[in-house]
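Priority: medium. Attachment 1 of 2:
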């Protein structure tokens, strides 16, 4: 049986990393990457070791595994609220609204605790708005982003009384005006401006470059605002931008803000006065050993310009609110060492967590949160942690130095954002359970799907 001795195993075998491994989060060797679980969790807000056992808040992970089984997402309520408060406190010097980006994690319990804390929400579909309302959120604190809002979406959002549509094209503006006229209810809008700023992030999650589908080009925005001002049922109230996700530096945010401020001045010159500026989301998190700017540093960098501007400011954080509040627990089913590579096949897969497959995202794996009593392997080796799906791209982590046995439960950290929210049923796999922890309490907040659930809405062809 394994116990929590991975670090000793690796340092025994490889004296060159002996000292480094004791303090550093990562040690890269020729064989693979070693992640020191204790150094990693020292940077995670509510995940920590007590007597070599892993806890989230005051609940031991082994208790959660025994109760809810694997694969299972677990979220810390405290961690989510702490980040929300960090945003609120850091921007206290300006009037602000934190509109949590629902797409990052749209579980009702997550939305509910944020709604209770006073958060607003950034949504991209009618479905997300319905979730916010079902969780007790207020429509009057909702901003609606997205490039493809339908007539149905617009009608529903307008009827519910959302705060603002972040408009991404002229054709959307025309449609919103038309729907608003039919309902005889003027629509509050911002234009989402694409400032053509390099967010220096993965190309799939960069949204503020002129080649990206998002927003209205910065050099066209003034003309589109002037056009919007002529429309009978459009009420111009703000300006918006969102340049990408997992930004670790503040410079791209500042570059985008400068361009937005320049536009606000030009709009004032044309007699168009705005009531708020929305700077989107995008602040990055530490998955392993990245060093993104903190929320406090982010605020300190933006505040002088925002105070001078004198407009209320909206933010739409998604990842930074929830990523490090969540883990994905998964069990090692099969160990398959081969001549070239060692594969650990676990019970979670790309259908549960697609970020590694889609963006080659590196997420940390904590071994042996519950030791298995299955087939052990000899000490620390490099493993690819893979799912059982029939895709070569089905991996959760590659070349990780770990000591594994079948039955071991592993925790993938940073899984609170874009984890369950992006999951699917590929290969007819039921989606995982979701659990929330608060203090010494825990609760199932998302039931594991059954296989019958997967085809409950389907029917056999009936020949006539
Ligand atoms: C319009 C908009 N707002 C907010 C977000 C949230 O971004 P993040 O999760 O990086 O904070 C996104 C996603 O990137 C988005 O597209
Ligand atoms: N899904 C992405 C972020 C997308 C942001 C949405 N605009 C990720 O996991 O990193």
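Attachment 2 of 2:
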């Amino acid at each position: 049986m394994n116990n929590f001795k991975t670090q000793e195993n690796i340092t025994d075998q490889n004296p060159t990393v002996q000292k480094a491994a004791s303090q550093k989060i990562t040690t890269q060797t020729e064989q693979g990457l070693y992640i020191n679980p204790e150094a990693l969790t020292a940077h995670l807000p509510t995940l920590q070791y007590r007597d070599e056992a892993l806890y989230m808040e005051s609940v031991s992970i082994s208790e959660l595994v025994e109760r809810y089984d694997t694969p299972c997402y677990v979220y810390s309520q405290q961690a989510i609220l702490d980040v929300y408060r960090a945003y609120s406190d850091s921007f206290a010097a300006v009037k602000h609204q934190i509109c949590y980006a629902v797409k990052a994690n749209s579980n009702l319990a997550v939305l509910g605790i944020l709604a209770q804390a006073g958060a607003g929400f950034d949504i991209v579909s009618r479905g997300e708005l319905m979730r916010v309302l079902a969780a007790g959120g207020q429509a009057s604190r909702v901003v609606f982003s997205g490039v493809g809002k339908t007539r149905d979406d617009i009608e529903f959002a307008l009827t519910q009384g959302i705060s603002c549509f972040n408009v991404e094209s002229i054709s959307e503006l025309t449609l919103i005006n038309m729907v608003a006229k039919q309902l005889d209810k003027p629509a509050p809008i911002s234009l989402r401006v694409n400032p053509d700023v390099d967010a220096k992030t993965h190309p799939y999650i960069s949204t503020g470059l002129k080649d990206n589908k998002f927003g209205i080009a910065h050099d066209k925005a003034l003309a589109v605002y002037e056009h919007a001002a002529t429309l009978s049922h459009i009420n111009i109230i703000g300006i918006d931008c969102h340049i990408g996700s997992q930004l670790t530096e503040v410079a791209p945010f500042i570059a985008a803000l400068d361009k937005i401020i320049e536009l606000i001045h030009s709009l004032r010159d044309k007699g168009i006065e705005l009531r708020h500026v929305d700077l989107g989301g995008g602040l990055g998190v530490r998955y392993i050993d990245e060093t993104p700017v903190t929320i406090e540093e982010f605020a300190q960098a933006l505040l002088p310009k925002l105070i001078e501007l004198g407009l209320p400011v909206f933010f739409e954080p998604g990842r930074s609110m929830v990523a490090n509040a969540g883990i994905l627990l998964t069990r090692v089913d099969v160990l398959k060492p081969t001549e070239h590579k060692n594969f650990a096949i676990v019970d979670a897969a790309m259908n549960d967590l697609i970020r590694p497959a889609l963006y080659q995202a590196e997420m940390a794996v904590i071994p042996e949160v519950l030791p298995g009593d299955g087939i052990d392997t000899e000490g620390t080796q490099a493993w690819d942690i893979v799912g059982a799906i029939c895709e070569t791209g089905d991996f959760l982590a590659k070349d990780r130095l770990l000591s594994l046995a079948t039955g071991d439960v592993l925790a993938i950290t940073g899984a609170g954002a874009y984890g369950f929210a992006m999951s699917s049923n590929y290969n007819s796999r039921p989606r995982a359970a979701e659990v929330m922890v608060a203090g010494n309490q825990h609760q199932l907040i998302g039931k594991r799907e059954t296989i019958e659930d997967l085809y409950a809405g389907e029917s056999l062809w009936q020949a006539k």
